[in-house]
């Protein structure tokens, strides 16, 4: 009976170890891909790869998206305001 539980414990331990190794490989690959994406994006835009710059980039793109939605809803004044704000944020970010 002791041999069975030893075998069962070994099997569960090896299975857990295998799952943990797969997760480590997955997340390390994901981290490398994310770092490469952020590095390429920041190099192409000419901005620093900092969290603040990336958040500001997201805000600027979101404002341009709001301008596009306002344009599709035929709200001209809102389109101009959102587009102006988005372009100001993005030009300030790129000009830094």
Secondary structure: elements and pairs:
Elements: H1 2-45, H2 51-72, H3 76-95
Helix pairs in contact: 2-3
Question: In words, what does this structure look like?
Answer:
Keywords: Membrane, Transmembrane, Transmembrane helix. The chain crosses the membrane at residues 7-30, 50-68, 75-94. With 96 residues, this protein is mostly helical. It folds into 2 domains: 1-46; 48-95. Helix content is 90%, strand content 0%. The protein is built from 3 helices and no strands. It has helices spanning 2-45, 51-72, 76-95. Helix 2 (51-72) runs antiparallel to helix 3 (76-95). The protein is elongated. It starts with a helix and ends with a helix. The mean pLDDT is 89.
Key traits:
mainly alpha, 96 residues, 0% strand, elongated, 2 domains
What's this model, at a glance?
Helix content is 90%, strand content 0%.
């Amino acid at each position: 009976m002791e041999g069975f539980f030893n075998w069962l414990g070994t099997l569960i331990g090896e299975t857990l170890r295998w799952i943990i190794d797969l997760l480590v490989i997955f997340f390390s690959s994901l981290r490398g891909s994310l770092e490469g994406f952020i590095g390429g994006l920041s190099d192409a835009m000419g901005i620093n790869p900092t969290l603040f710059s990336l958040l500001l980039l997201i805000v600027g793109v979101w404002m341009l998206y709001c301008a596009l939605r306002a344009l599709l809803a035929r709200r001209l004044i809102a389109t101009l305001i959102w587009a102006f704000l988005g372009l100001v944020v993005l030009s300030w970010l790129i000009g830094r």
